[in-house]
Amino acid sequence: MSHSALHAISPIDGRYHDKVKSLSQYFSEAALIKYRIRVEVEYYIALCKLPLAQLNDVSEDQIKALRNIYVNFEEKDALRVKEIEKTTNHDVKAVEYFIKEKLDNTDLKEKLEFIHFGLTSQDINNTAIPLSLRDAVEEVYLNELNEVISELNAFAIEWKDIPMLARTHGQPASPTRLGKEIMVYAERLKEQYNALIDTPFSAKFGGATGNFNAHHVAYPEVDWIEFANEFVNDTLGLFRSQTTTQVEHYDNLARLFDAMKRINTILTDFNRDIWSYISMDYFKQKIKEGEVGSSAMPHKVNPIDFENAEGNLGIANALFEHLAAKLPISRLQRDLTDSTVLRNIGVPIAHTLLAIKSMQKGLGKLLINEAKIKSDLEDNWAVVAEAIQTVLRRENFPKPYEALKDLTRKNEKITAESIAEFIDGLNVSEEIKKELKQITPFNYTGIQLF
After folding, report:
1. Is 317 inside a domain boundary?
2. Confidence of residue 4 (pLDDT cuts 50, 70, 90)
3. What's the mean pLDDT in 103-110?
4. Which of 7, 169, 295, 299 is catalytic?
5. Are residues 412 and 276 in the same domain?
6. So what's the pLDDT on residue 387?
7. pTM
């Protein structure tokens, strides 16, 4: 089943494979097979612990051997499942037959029909898939996101005292601090991180139409709801949806993807801002020996990492949007439209991971250009007009806003000297004039927020 990366249709499995290969153990075909086997095996073990009369003599050694089917799962096992599927033309049934084949020459040979007992395919899919997704989110995605938040926090602290010209509508505005502008994103990401981790990984487990029909008719004395809750919630560590059709309703899956989409939107906003600061020369970029910025212009060092990040975030969000909108919709007790869609949940996560890695690479190249930042402040003394008119309002000076508007909306450049000259012409006390002259674009930065 292997193929050259040069011939992969998706860049996820081609050009970018090395950057996202950690996700293969959660979202590949082999991974899906392994997670399905894990659920089937753990379900069988749970039945043994009821115990049902036919399964009350299954030993701990046999249980260990059962678990080894997925613990020691190898590529040859995945290939065998795919071989069985050629005959069954049904992927979950192939998993069932594979497990039975594994047990055919063991002491459990007479108890094989309790593999997949009373279940429909979605009892396996709607537990295996959220299980793999949970593991990928907790073991890969959240670690990468936390690293980004930590990096931004560190930059915010490092640059917290650097005054910088703000721009609203692209125009010079009241000065801010570079560190605070970075902290804006760190805080936004942390809030959405918290919202994401509050989302449960929901699973469906209840038979062909969600009512335990087959289970109940075979063993009416068993409390199958209690059994399923314990199996899904405690054994698998998921959250069992209580009232379902044949499929999980996917509302919490949509909630998770919407949370990831919001995080990606914040990351897109950040990447565009950093791109803009680089274009304004507020940041230089470290040059790596041998790298080329343009095939035609030798002088260029492009902000390619932030552009790649933005592009991948866009692809990820388009897919998250579709997943969140489509998955909660299923005709009557089930249609099959979720099946092929669910096979793609790793793709937007991979593009998100790519984006985060690109962004981190770009952040590692940044060199702050304080000279340019200071130069922009020096060239924009007009931004202290807000401060001056506000102090004049405090002093009940007549029409201070209009006075500053007349000064600053001329085509002449506003400088420290023209501001001082304006202040000298005001009909206010020398003490107030002195106070006003102490305001500069470098110190008019508001409250230090952290």
Report:
1. yes
2. confident
3. 91
4. 169
5. no
6. 94
7. 0.92
